[in-house]
């Protein structure tokens, strides 16, 4: 592969932090001196539709693909060579000509509880206001505490933290991983248990996207973390079977424990009053085995849950 290797990135602080981490990791994997990395593996900033419409309801506008479309066009046009995404935001299908070449080791997959006034989720008073834009977090919170008032909270992580600090909400929920990458973990009051707040498929993991012909590039193997890639394959298999989107409350979390993969996946009704969950294990699975387990368990959940998709017009702004 010829240098420079250009990394396309969104301009949000989180995207820049993630791309910067991977820029250094790729530079080191290629044996490039620290001082040369910026020129050999440069960052190219790209504004996506999703970034321009932050204040509007994404669901009405086409969901996850809004954050990836312009970046994928730049990859296909050859303006950039690599894109770093939060795995959670990557749609089930890759566009023709592109691939996820590597999945680095996952960060903490848990959700974080953030509040100016309360130490923990359990300490929230009756009827407390919880800010989130995630249907999954809404449903999981209401499953434990149907008295909570869930209100829409959008914007980047800094905006959400500021609104929590100003008392616009009694608490908000964010992914621990994003906060860690931004260096704002001092706002975390509690890391929520994986069982009650089963994460979104791929939460805490990054996806390194390239053109399909670069799937075996020399730096790819150095960045891929096989246990994470297998776990994420299982979660995304479940997501596909559950037709997971930001209009459905879907969780999936897998870990590799020694030689064993353990996957749990669930769907909830938006108000948290109903919850369908399946779990399973595999010994020494390949990525394909893991994906197949995810698809099987996801299909079982889907068969019981039916269609839990929410009409965007029925959501509170
Ligand atoms: N949907 C927004 C989004 N996409 C990825 C992350 C960071 C978490 C991750 O790396 O999975 C976040 C913010 C959040 O959920 O708190």
TrEMBL record:
GO terms for cellular component: cytoplasm. Binds 1 dipyrromethane group covalently. It comes from the Bacteria. Residues 231-301 form the Porphobilinogen deaminase C-terminal domain. Pathway: Porphyrin-containing compound metabolism; protoporphyrin-IX biosynthesis; coproporphyrinogen-III from 5-aminolevulinate: step 2/4. The modification S-(dipyrrolylmethanemethyl)cysteine is found at residue 246. Coiled coil: none annotated. Its EC number is 2.5.1.61. It catalyses: 4 porphobilinogen + H2O = hydroxymethylbilane + 4 NH4(+). PROSITE patterns: PORPHOBILINOGEN_DEAM (PS00533). InterPro entries: HemC, Porphobilin_deaminase_cofac_BS, Porphobilin_deaminase_N, Porphobilinogen_deaminase_C, Porphobilinogen_deaminase_C_sf. Keywords: Porphyrin biosynthesis, Transferase. The keyword Transferase applies. GO terms for molecular function: hydroxymethylbilane synthase activity. SUPFAM superfamilies: Periplasmic binding protein-like II, Porphobilinogen deaminase (hydroxymethylbilane synthase), C-terminal domain. Its cofactor is dipyrromethane. It is an enzyme of class 2 (transferase). It holds the Pfam family Porphobil_deam. GO terms for biological process: protoporphyrinogen IX biosynthetic process. Monomer. The porphobilinogen subunits are added to the dipyrromethane group. Tetrapolymerization of the monopyrrole PBG into the hydroxymethylbilane pre-uroporphyrinogen in several discrete steps. This is Porphobilinogen deaminase. The gene is hemC.
């Amino acid at each position: 592969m010829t240098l420079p290797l250009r990394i396309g990135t969104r301009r949000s602080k989180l995207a820049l932090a993630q791309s910067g981490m991977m820029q250094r990791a790729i530079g080191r994997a290629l044996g490039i001196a620290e001082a040369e990395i910026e020129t050999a593996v440069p960052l190219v900033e790209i504004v996506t539709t999703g970034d321009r419409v932050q204040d509007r309801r994404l669901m009405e506008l086409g969901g996850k693909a809004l954050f990836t479309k312009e970046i994928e066009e730049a990859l296909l046009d050859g303006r950039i060579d690599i894109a770093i995404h939060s795995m959670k935001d990557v749609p089930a299908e890759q566009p023709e000509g592109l691939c996820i070449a590597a999945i680095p080791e996952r960060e903490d997959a848990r959700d974080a509880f953030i509040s100016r006034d309360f130490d923990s989720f359990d300490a929230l008073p009756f009827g407390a206001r919880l800010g989130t834009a995630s249907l999954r977090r809404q449903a999981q919170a209401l499953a434990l505490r149907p008295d909570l008032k869930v209100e829409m909270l959008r914007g980047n992580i800094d905006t959400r933290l500021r609104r929590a600090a100003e008392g616009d909400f009694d608490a908000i929920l964010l992914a621990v991983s994003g906060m860690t990458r931004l260096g704002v973990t001092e706002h975390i009051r509690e890391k929520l248990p994986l069982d009650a707040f089963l994460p979104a498929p791929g939460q805490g993991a990054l996806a390194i996207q390239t053109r399909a012909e670069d799937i075996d590039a020399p730096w790819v193997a150095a960045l891929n973390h096989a246990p994470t890639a297998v776990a994420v394959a299982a979660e995304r298999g479940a997501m596909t079977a559950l037709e997971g989107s930001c209009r459905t409350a879907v969780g999936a979390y897998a870990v590799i424990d020694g030689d064993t993969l353990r996957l749990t996946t669930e769907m909830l009704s938006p108000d948290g009053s109903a919850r369908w969950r399946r779990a399973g294990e595999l010994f020494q699975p390949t990525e394909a085995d893991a994906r197949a387990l995810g698809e099987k368990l996801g299909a079982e959940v889907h068969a019981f849950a039916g269609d839990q998709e929410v009409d965007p017009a029925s959501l509170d702004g």
